[in-house]
Amino acid sequence: MKVVLVYPPIPHITTSTSPPVGLAYLASILKQKKAEVAVVSSDAEEMGVEATTEKILSLSPDMVGISISTPTFNNAVKIIGGIQSKDGNIKIQVGGPHATLFPDELLNLGVDFVIRGEGEVTMSELCDYFENNIALEKIDGLSYKADGRNKHNPDRELIADLDSLPYPSWELFPIHRYKSDFRKKEFTLPVLSSRGCPARCTFCYKDIFGSMFRVRSPKNIVGEIEYLKSTFHIEEFAIIDDSFTSIPKRAMEVCDLIVERKINLPWTLPAGIRVPTVSAELLQKLKTAGCYRAGLGIESGNQDILRSISKGITLEQVRRAVRLVKESGIESAGYFMIGNLEETEETIEQTIRFAIELDPDYAQFTKTTPYPGTAIYKQLKSENRIVTDNWDDYDSFLKGRPTFTHKNLTNEQIDAKLREAYRRFYYRPKYILKHMKTIASWREIKTLLSNTLKFFKSYSA
Fold first, then answer.
1. What is the rounded CA–CA span in Å between residue 242 and residue 199?
2. pLDDT (tens digit, 9 = 90+) per residue, 68-122?
3. Which structural domain, as residue segments, surrounds residue 212?
4. Coil, strand or helix: which one is 354?
5. pTM exceeding the 0.90 threshold for the entire prediction
6. What is the pLDDT of residues 232-268, one digit of tens each?
7. Which of 103, 198, 235, 438 would disulfide-bridge 114, Cβ 3.0–4.6 Å?
8. Which of 94, 127, 147 is the last residue before a domain boundary?
């Protein structure tokens, strides 16, 4: 069986593209099942819907598997329609966050199979259906049509032993074409060392990996890093867990093994570390192991807003965590949200001032977006405050397209405060001088110019 896995084009301009770890794991599962696997990664290959569809068809697959998030849903539907109009014999299977939430919608569009939730075992058993004719109704986590009706098998249990999964098959991906402004080296790949997050943030979607924190062993994680280094010659890596440090002892064991195995590569924690877990001991372990940047999910400078989004942290914990990160010599990145459900202009002002007070090396401000499946989406939907079902609008970096009616603010006010947050944080003479002193290479100069241009295009209007 020949399978083409697809990561659809993202509808909005971005200067960074991320290798899709989920697809890479599925590719490994398919290879274990002796399938012939190819990958089409639209963002890395800079292809739109039409070019993506043409490339898929040129590979003459028996089955196409498409990963669908909320922002890529509309483009994925166009690709599905393009495939169906040219070759009705190709089986189409979809998965990912949006597919898990809306399997009926996709089945009604003519999709053959929807893999809901964590996909590796379900994909493996779907291969058994094609190769060994096992019964579809025995495959948990699968949705499909039967006797003219949509059939949804029971949800699949989460994978208990993550060490049992093969390493992602990056050799099938255009790995040198993914790009990011915020890294030291040209070539990096991601590592997912755990799944699930125990936090209860109202803006976060958990229907894929769940709330239970499941971990790979330090030996398995560092073994993958060694594999990436020896096989693909990566120059750095990123551990992209939602919460790498939820169990600090385990995170420190990973760091110790990285040092013991002499990995000697720089690395980052872009998804962030949990504020309450930050300690001088943990940060020293991270620094010694090569970690040079860590993100912190701060979200707001108002304690009542933090409480309303169930963040589970205090402003004093944040101050302490940022101070310790700075003292460790690790670069800090603070993540903030503008326009939370209970926000006022004053609470947003407090967030901007708090970001400036903390003075992390980088700050990211995003617009509160009620992604389907999150607690805030469910609340807004029940209150009839969702104003659009055009999934292209659901992008936390996107200006000008409201997704819900705010009780206290207009969409124009939220967009204006978002622009103001970036201007006030990054246009400070203190900040500019600090970063001018740290520029050590032509790459860093290009990154600075690129980000400045992006800022003017996106936030200065």
1. 10
2. 999 899 999 999 999 999 999 999 999 999 999 999 999 999 999 999 999 999 9
3. 182-426
4. helix
5. yes
6. 999 999 999 988 999 999 999 999 999 999 999 999 9
7. 103
8. 147
